[in-house]
Amino acid sequence: MRLLKKVLAVGLASAMVFSMAGCGGSGTKGTTAASEATTAADTKKDESTAETTAKAVKDAVGGDLAGKKVGISIYKFDDNFMTLYRTELQRYLTEDLGFKKENVVIQDGKGDQAEQTNQIQNFITQKYDVLILNLVQASSAPEITDMCKAAGIPVVYINREPDTEEEQRWKDEKINATYVGCDARQSGTYQGEEILETSNKGDINGDGVINYIMIQGDPENVDAQYRTEFSVKALTESGAKVKELLKQRGDWDQAKAQQIAQDALTQYGDQIEVIFCNNDAMALGALQAIEAAGRTVNKDIYLVGVDALTEAVQNVIDGKQTGTVFNDHFSQAKTASDMAAKLLQGETVENVNMVDYIKITKENAQDTLNKLKK
Ligand code: GAL
Protein backbone atom coordinates (compact mmCIF):
# COMPACT_ATOMS: atom_id res chain seq x y z
CA MET A 1 0.00 0.00 0.00
CA ARG A 2 2.75 2.41 1.01
CA LEU A 3 4.81 1.59 -2.06
CA LEU A 4 1.86 2.19 -4.34
CA LYS A 5 1.24 5.60 -2.84
CA LYS A 6 4.81 6.62 -3.44
CA VAL A 7 4.90 5.14 -6.88
CA LEU A 8 1.69 6.86 -7.94
CA ALA A 9 2.98 10.20 -6.74
CA VAL A 10 6.13 9.79 -8.82
CA GLY A 11 4.10 8.52 -11.75
CA LEU A 12 1.94 11.59 -11.67
CA ALA A 13 4.94 13.87 -11.55
CA SER A 14 6.51 12.14 -14.53
CA ALA A 15 3.23 12.35 -16.45
CA MET A 16 3.49 16.10 -16.20
CA VAL A 17 7.11 16.27 -17.31
CA PHE A 18 6.45 15.87 -21.04
CA SER A 19 3.94 18.68 -21.03
CA MET A 20 5.71 20.99 -18.61
CA ALA A 21 8.97 20.68 -20.49
CA GLY A 22 6.99 21.41 -23.61
CA CYS A 23 5.26 24.54 -22.42
CA GLY A 24 7.56 26.17 -19.95
CA GLY A 25 4.98 26.07 -17.19
CA SER A 26 1.25 26.36 -16.85
CA GLY A 27 -1.03 29.33 -17.20
CA THR A 28 -2.54 30.94 -20.22
CA LYS A 29 0.50 32.82 -21.44
CA GLY A 30 2.03 31.38 -24.57
CA THR A 31 5.61 30.51 -25.36
CA THR A 32 7.48 30.32 -28.63
CA ALA A 33 7.47 27.10 -30.57
CA ALA A 34 11.24 26.88 -30.33
CA SER A 35 11.21 26.83 -26.56
CA GLU A 36 8.73 23.98 -26.65
CA ALA A 37 11.03 21.33 -28.02
CA THR A 38 11.69 18.77 -25.31
CA THR A 39 15.36 17.92 -25.33
CA ALA A 40 16.41 14.41 -26.25
CA ALA A 41 18.06 13.98 -22.85
CA ASP A 42 14.90 14.99 -21.00
CA THR A 43 12.80 12.63 -23.06
CA LYS A 44 15.14 9.75 -22.35
CA LYS A 45 15.11 10.48 -18.64
CA ASP A 46 11.31 10.74 -18.60
CA GLU A 47 10.99 7.47 -20.45
CA SER A 48 13.18 5.55 -18.06
CA THR A 49 11.45 7.08 -15.00
CA ALA A 50 8.09 6.22 -16.52
CA GLU A 51 9.21 2.63 -17.15
CA THR A 52 10.41 2.13 -13.57
CA THR A 53 7.24 3.73 -12.27
CA ALA A 54 4.93 1.68 -14.42
CA LYS A 55 6.59 -1.58 -13.39
CA ALA A 56 6.33 -0.74 -9.69
CA VAL A 57 2.70 0.36 -10.02
CA LYS A 58 1.94 -2.80 -11.94
CA ASP A 59 3.39 -4.91 -9.14
CA ALA A 60 1.33 -3.01 -6.59
CA VAL A 61 -1.84 -3.26 -8.65
CA GLY A 62 -1.25 -6.98 -8.98
CA GLY A 63 -1.38 -7.13 -5.20
CA ASP A 64 -3.65 -4.49 -3.75
CA LEU A 65 -5.84 -3.70 -6.70
CA ALA A 66 -6.22 -7.06 -8.42
CA GLY A 67 -9.85 -7.65 -9.20
CA LYS A 68 -10.83 -3.99 -8.93
CA LYS A 69 -13.32 -2.90 -11.58
CA VAL A 70 -13.01 0.36 -13.52
CA GLY A 71 -16.12 1.69 -15.29
CA ILE A 72 -15.52 4.24 -18.02
CA SER A 73 -18.12 6.17 -19.97
CA ILE A 74 -17.19 8.34 -22.96
CA TYR A 75 -19.63 11.08 -24.07
CA LYS A 76 -19.72 9.48 -27.52
CA PHE A 77 -17.45 7.00 -29.29
CA ASP A 78 -17.85 8.83 -32.59
CA ASP A 79 -15.36 11.61 -31.72
CA ASN A 80 -11.81 11.55 -33.16
CA PHE A 81 -10.03 12.96 -30.14
CA MET A 82 -11.94 10.99 -27.50
CA THR A 83 -11.23 7.82 -29.48
CA LEU A 84 -7.48 8.41 -29.08
CA TYR A 85 -8.05 9.24 -25.43
CA ARG A 86 -10.10 6.14 -24.61
CA THR A 87 -7.68 3.85 -26.48
CA GLU A 88 -4.84 5.23 -24.36
CA LEU A 89 -6.90 4.93 -21.15
CA GLN A 90 -7.51 1.27 -21.80
CA ARG A 91 -3.88 0.66 -22.77
CA TYR A 92 -2.43 2.44 -19.77
CA LEU A 93 -4.82 0.89 -17.21
CA THR A 94 -4.25 -2.65 -18.44
CA GLU A 95 -0.70 -2.68 -19.81
CA ASP A 96 1.03 -0.22 -17.52
CA LEU A 97 -1.04 -0.37 -14.34
CA GLY A 98 -1.93 -4.05 -14.66
CA PHE A 99 -5.71 -3.91 -14.25
CA LYS A 100 -7.30 -7.03 -15.73
CA LYS A 101 -8.64 -6.46 -19.25
CA GLU A 102 -12.08 -7.79 -18.37
CA ASN A 103 -12.25 -5.39 -15.41
CA VAL A 104 -11.88 -2.25 -17.51
CA VAL A 105 -15.22 -1.63 -19.21
CA ILE A 106 -15.77 1.32 -21.54
CA GLN A 107 -19.25 2.42 -22.59
CA ASP A 108 -20.53 4.75 -25.29
CA GLY A 109 -22.71 7.61 -23.96
CA LYS A 110 -23.90 8.20 -27.56
CA GLY A 111 -24.21 11.93 -26.94
CA ASP A 112 -27.27 11.30 -24.76
CA GLN A 113 -27.08 12.30 -21.08
CA ALA A 114 -30.11 10.20 -20.05
CA GLU A 115 -28.55 7.11 -21.63
CA GLN A 116 -25.18 7.83 -20.03
CA THR A 117 -26.76 8.37 -16.60
CA ASN A 118 -28.36 4.92 -16.98
CA GLN A 119 -24.99 3.38 -17.82
CA ILE A 120 -23.47 4.99 -14.75
CA GLN A 121 -26.36 3.72 -12.65
CA ASN A 122 -25.63 0.22 -13.96
CA PHE A 123 -21.94 0.54 -13.07
CA ILE A 124 -23.06 1.49 -9.56
CA THR A 125 -25.52 -1.40 -9.28
CA GLN A 126 -22.83 -3.80 -10.49
CA LYS A 127 -20.53 -2.48 -7.77
CA TYR A 128 -17.74 -1.07 -9.91
CA ASP A 129 -14.92 0.19 -7.70
CA VAL A 130 -14.07 3.43 -9.48
CA LEU A 131 -15.53 5.39 -12.40
CA ILE A 132 -13.81 7.51 -15.05
CA LEU A 133 -16.42 9.72 -16.69
CA ASN A 134 -16.47 11.92 -19.76
CA LEU A 135 -19.92 13.43 -19.29
CA VAL A 136 -22.24 14.23 -22.16
CA GLN A 137 -23.28 17.35 -20.24
CA ALA A 138 -20.82 18.66 -17.69
CA SER A 139 -23.79 20.31 -15.93
CA SER A 140 -24.92 16.81 -14.85
CA ALA A 141 -21.88 16.46 -12.59
CA PRO A 142 -23.63 17.39 -9.30
CA GLU A 143 -26.33 14.75 -9.81
CA ILE A 144 -23.84 12.05 -10.92
CA THR A 145 -21.42 12.91 -8.12
CA ASP A 146 -24.19 12.49 -5.55
CA MET A 147 -25.15 9.10 -7.02
CA CYS A 148 -21.53 7.93 -6.76
CA LYS A 149 -21.06 9.42 -3.32
CA ALA A 150 -24.15 7.64 -1.99
CA ALA A 151 -22.73 4.35 -3.29
CA GLY A 152 -19.25 5.09 -1.92
CA ILE A 153 -17.67 4.95 -5.39
CA PRO A 154 -14.93 7.44 -6.27
CA VAL A 155 -15.19 9.25 -9.58
CA VAL A 156 -12.66 10.83 -11.94
CA TYR A 157 -14.18 13.27 -14.43
CA ILE A 158 -12.27 13.82 -17.64
CA ASN A 159 -12.32 16.19 -20.63
CA ARG A 160 -15.62 18.02 -19.99
CA GLU A 161 -15.06 20.14 -16.96
CA PRO A 162 -17.80 20.58 -14.34
CA ASP A 163 -18.17 24.15 -13.10
CA THR A 164 -15.90 25.56 -10.40
CA GLU A 165 -18.66 25.60 -7.80
CA GLU A 166 -19.13 21.83 -8.19
CA GLU A 167 -15.37 21.21 -8.05
CA GLN A 168 -15.15 23.31 -4.88
CA ARG A 169 -17.97 21.29 -3.32
CA TRP A 170 -15.92 18.09 -3.69
CA LYS A 171 -13.16 19.73 -1.73
CA ASP A 172 -15.36 21.32 0.92
CA GLU A 173 -17.46 18.21 1.50
CA LYS A 174 -14.50 15.81 1.15
CA ILE A 175 -16.17 13.96 -1.71
CA ASN A 176 -14.03 11.42 -3.58
CA ALA A 177 -14.29 13.16 -6.93
CA THR A 178 -11.70 14.85 -9.09
CA TYR A 179 -11.30 16.37 -12.55
CA VAL A 180 -8.47 15.76 -15.02
CA GLY A 181 -8.24 17.99 -18.07
CA CYS A 182 -6.51 20.92 -19.70
CA ASP A 183 -7.07 24.63 -19.31
CA ALA A 184 -8.74 25.46 -22.62
CA ARG A 185 -7.79 29.13 -22.26
CA GLN A 186 -4.23 28.06 -22.95
CA SER A 187 -5.14 26.30 -26.21
CA GLY A 188 -7.12 29.32 -27.40
CA THR A 189 -4.22 31.62 -26.62
CA TYR A 190 -1.84 29.37 -28.59
CA GLN A 191 -4.15 29.47 -31.60
CA GLY A 192 -4.16 33.26 -31.57
CA GLU A 193 -0.38 33.30 -31.24
CA GLU A 194 -0.01 31.02 -34.23
CA ILE A 195 -1.83 33.59 -36.33
CA LEU A 196 0.28 36.44 -34.92
CA GLU A 197 3.45 34.49 -35.77
CA THR A 198 2.65 34.46 -39.51
CA SER A 199 4.55 36.92 -41.76
CA ASN A 200 1.64 39.38 -41.96
CA LYS A 201 0.22 38.61 -38.49
CA GLY A 202 -3.01 37.34 -39.97
CA ASP A 203 -3.73 40.51 -41.93
CA ILE A 204 -3.35 39.03 -45.40
CA ASN A 205 -4.86 41.95 -47.36
CA GLY A 206 -3.04 44.54 -45.26
CA ASP A 207 -6.13 46.61 -44.44
CA GLY A 208 -5.30 46.68 -40.72
CA VAL A 209 -8.09 44.28 -39.69
CA ILE A 210 -8.00 40.49 -39.25
CA ASN A 211 -11.24 39.13 -40.70
CA TYR A 212 -12.05 35.70 -39.36
CA ILE A 213 -14.69 33.04 -39.04
CA MET A 214 -15.00 30.91 -35.91
CA ILE A 215 -16.15 27.29 -36.12
CA GLN A 216 -17.09 26.24 -32.62
CA GLY A 217 -17.35 22.87 -30.90
CA ASP A 218 -20.37 22.13 -28.74
CA PRO A 219 -20.95 25.53 -27.09
CA GLU A 220 -22.12 23.90 -23.82
CA ASN A 221 -18.55 22.70 -23.49
CA VAL A 222 -16.07 24.94 -21.72
CA ASP A 223 -13.33 23.91 -24.20
CA ALA A 224 -15.39 25.45 -27.01
CA GLN A 225 -16.18 28.60 -25.00
CA TYR A 226 -12.62 29.29 -23.91
CA ARG A 227 -10.96 28.45 -27.23
CA THR A 228 -13.36 30.81 -28.98
CA GLU A 229 -12.75 33.59 -26.50
CA PHE A 230 -9.00 33.29 -25.95
CA SER A 231 -7.92 32.79 -29.57
CA VAL A 232 -9.40 36.18 -30.42
CA LYS A 233 -8.23 37.71 -27.14
CA ALA A 234 -4.61 36.84 -28.06
CA LEU A 235 -5.08 38.90 -31.23
CA THR A 236 -6.73 41.91 -29.62
CA GLU A 237 -4.32 41.94 -26.67
CA SER A 238 -1.45 42.24 -29.15
CA GLY A 239 -3.13 45.42 -30.41
CA ALA A 240 -4.60 43.87 -33.57
CA LYS A 241 -8.01 44.91 -34.86
CA VAL A 242 -10.35 42.03 -35.61
CA LYS A 243 -13.67 41.47 -37.33
CA GLU A 244 -15.77 38.36 -36.80
CA LEU A 245 -17.57 37.58 -40.06
CA LEU A 246 -19.25 34.47 -38.71
CA LYS A 247 -19.42 32.25 -35.63
CA GLN A 248 -21.18 28.92 -35.93
CA ARG A 249 -21.32 25.65 -34.02
CA GLY A 250 -19.79 22.64 -35.76
CA ASP A 251 -20.08 20.35 -32.71
CA TRP A 252 -16.48 19.09 -33.07
CA ASP A 253 -17.54 17.40 -36.31
CA GLN A 254 -15.60 17.33 -39.60
CA ALA A 255 -18.58 17.14 -41.96
CA LYS A 256 -20.48 19.96 -40.20
CA ALA A 257 -17.39 22.16 -40.31
CA GLN A 258 -16.86 21.47 -43.99
CA GLN A 259 -20.39 22.69 -44.70
CA ILE A 260 -20.00 25.79 -42.52
CA ALA A 261 -16.68 26.71 -44.16
CA GLN A 262 -18.06 26.06 -47.64
CA ASP A 263 -21.05 28.36 -47.05
CA ALA A 264 -18.87 31.03 -45.44
CA LEU A 265 -16.38 30.94 -48.32
CA THR A 266 -19.25 31.37 -50.76
CA GLN A 267 -20.71 34.25 -48.77
CA TYR A 268 -17.57 36.14 -47.73
CA GLY A 269 -15.01 34.98 -50.33
CA ASP A 270 -11.62 36.70 -50.12
CA GLN A 271 -12.67 38.70 -47.10
CA ILE A 272 -11.93 35.67 -44.92
CA GLU A 273 -8.32 35.78 -43.75
CA VAL A 274 -8.45 33.32 -40.87
CA ILE A 275 -10.52 30.25 -40.05
CA PHE A 276 -10.40 29.38 -36.35
CA CYS A 277 -11.63 25.87 -35.57
CA ASN A 278 -12.09 24.77 -31.96
CA ASN A 279 -10.61 21.36 -32.89
CA ASP A 280 -8.68 19.57 -35.64
CA ALA A 281 -11.53 17.38 -36.88
CA MET A 282 -13.29 20.61 -37.86
CA ALA A 283 -10.06 22.05 -39.30
CA LEU A 284 -9.85 18.98 -41.56
CA GLY A 285 -13.40 19.72 -42.74
CA ALA A 286 -12.60 23.41 -43.25
CA LEU A 287 -9.51 22.45 -45.29
CA GLN A 288 -11.67 20.40 -47.67
CA ALA A 289 -13.87 23.46 -48.22
CA ILE A 290 -10.85 25.77 -48.58
CA GLU A 291 -9.29 23.55 -51.25
CA ALA A 292 -12.61 23.13 -53.07
CA ALA A 293 -12.93 26.93 -53.18
CA GLY A 294 -9.47 27.17 -54.79
CA ARG A 295 -7.90 28.93 -51.81
CA THR A 296 -4.43 28.16 -50.47
CA VAL A 297 -3.64 27.88 -46.76
CA ASN A 298 -0.74 30.04 -45.54
CA LYS A 299 -0.92 32.05 -48.78
CA ASP A 300 -4.37 33.58 -48.98
CA ILE A 301 -6.00 32.15 -45.84
CA TYR A 302 -4.88 30.85 -42.42
CA LEU A 303 -6.32 27.83 -40.64
CA VAL A 304 -5.79 26.65 -37.06
CA GLY A 305 -7.20 23.82 -34.93
CA VAL A 306 -6.60 22.02 -31.63
CA ASP A 307 -5.86 18.37 -30.66
CA ALA A 308 -2.87 17.47 -32.89
CA LEU A 309 -4.62 14.65 -34.73
CA THR A 310 -1.94 12.97 -36.85
CA GLU A 311 -3.63 14.06 -40.10
CA ALA A 312 -3.70 17.67 -38.94
CA VAL A 313 -0.07 17.61 -37.81
CA GLN A 314 0.86 16.18 -41.22
CA ASN A 315 -1.08 19.08 -42.77
CA VAL A 316 0.93 21.54 -40.67
CA ILE A 317 4.14 19.94 -42.00
CA ASP A 318 2.79 20.12 -45.56
CA GLY A 319 1.73 23.76 -45.11
CA LYS A 320 -1.99 22.94 -45.41
CA GLN A 321 -2.83 23.97 -41.85
CA THR A 322 -1.17 26.94 -40.15
CA GLY A 323 -0.95 25.37 -36.72
CA THR A 324 -2.57 23.19 -34.11
CA VAL A 325 -2.27 22.60 -30.36
CA PHE A 326 -1.46 19.23 -28.83
CA ASN A 327 -4.26 18.17 -26.48
CA ASP A 328 -2.05 15.69 -24.66
CA HIS A 329 -4.23 12.58 -24.41
CA PHE A 330 -1.27 10.48 -23.22
CA SER A 331 -0.69 12.59 -20.10
CA GLN A 332 -4.42 13.06 -19.53
CA ALA A 333 -5.11 9.31 -19.72
CA LYS A 334 -2.16 8.59 -17.45
CA THR A 335 -3.15 11.23 -14.89
CA ALA A 336 -6.81 10.13 -14.89
CA SER A 337 -5.81 6.48 -14.39
CA ASP A 338 -3.31 7.34 -11.66
CA MET A 339 -6.02 9.38 -9.91
CA ALA A 340 -8.41 6.43 -10.13
CA ALA A 341 -5.77 4.14 -8.59
CA LYS A 342 -5.02 6.67 -5.85
CA LEU A 343 -8.71 7.05 -4.99
CA LEU A 344 -9.00 3.27 -4.87
CA GLN A 345 -6.25 3.34 -2.27
CA GLY A 346 -8.27 5.78 -0.18
CA GLU A 347 -5.95 8.69 -0.84
CA THR A 348 -7.08 12.28 -0.94
CA VAL A 349 -6.31 13.93 -4.27
CA GLU A 350 -6.51 17.47 -5.60
CA ASN A 351 -9.98 18.34 -6.91
CA VAL A 352 -8.62 19.69 -10.21
CA ASN A 353 -5.61 18.36 -12.15
CA MET A 354 -4.51 20.18 -15.27
CA VAL A 355 -2.20 18.94 -18.01
CA ASP A 356 -0.52 21.47 -20.30
CA TYR A 357 -1.26 21.95 -23.97
CA ILE A 358 1.65 22.21 -26.45
CA LYS A 359 1.67 24.66 -29.32
CA ILE A 360 2.40 22.96 -32.68
CA THR A 361 3.72 24.92 -35.63
CA LYS A 362 5.87 23.97 -38.60
CA GLU A 363 9.01 24.05 -36.41
CA ASN A 364 8.02 21.25 -34.03
CA ALA A 365 5.35 19.43 -36.09
CA GLN A 366 7.63 16.66 -37.37
CA ASP A 367 8.94 16.03 -33.89
CA THR A 368 5.39 15.85 -32.57
CA LEU A 369 4.30 13.49 -35.32
CA ASN A 370 7.17 11.13 -34.50
CA LYS A 371 6.08 11.09 -30.85
CA LEU A 372 2.42 10.55 -31.77
CA LYS A 373 3.24 7.64 -34.03
CA LYS A 374 5.57 5.92 -31.55
C1 GAL B 1 -11.99 18.58 -26.71
C2 GAL B 1 -11.36 18.15 -28.02
C3 GAL B 1 -12.43 17.94 -29.06
C4 GAL B 1 -13.52 17.01 -28.55
C5 GAL B 1 -14.02 17.48 -27.20
C6 GAL B 1 -15.03 16.52 -26.62
O1 GAL B 1 -11.01 18.72 -25.73
O2 GAL B 1 -10.48 19.14 -28.45
O3 GAL B 1 -11.88 17.44 -30.26
O4 GAL B 1 -12.99 15.72 -28.44
O5 GAL B 1 -12.94 17.63 -26.30
O6 GAL B 1 -15.49 16.97 -25.38
UniProtKB/TrEMBL annotation:
It is found in: Cell envelope. GO terms for cellular component: outer membrane-bounded periplasmic space. Keywords: Calcium, Metal-binding, Signal. Residues 70-347 form the Periplasmic binding protein domain. InterPro entries: Bact_Solute-Bind_Prot2, MglB-like_PBP1, Peripla_BP_I, SBP_2_dom. Its main location: other. It comes from the Bacteria. Residues 1-21 form the signal peptide. SUPFAM superfamilies: Periplasmic binding protein-like I. GO terms for molecular function: carbohydrate binding; metal ion binding. The ABC transporter complex is composed of one ATP-binding protein (MglA), two transmembrane proteins (MglC) and a solute-binding protein (MglB). This is D-galactose/methyl-galactoside binding periplasmic protein MglB.
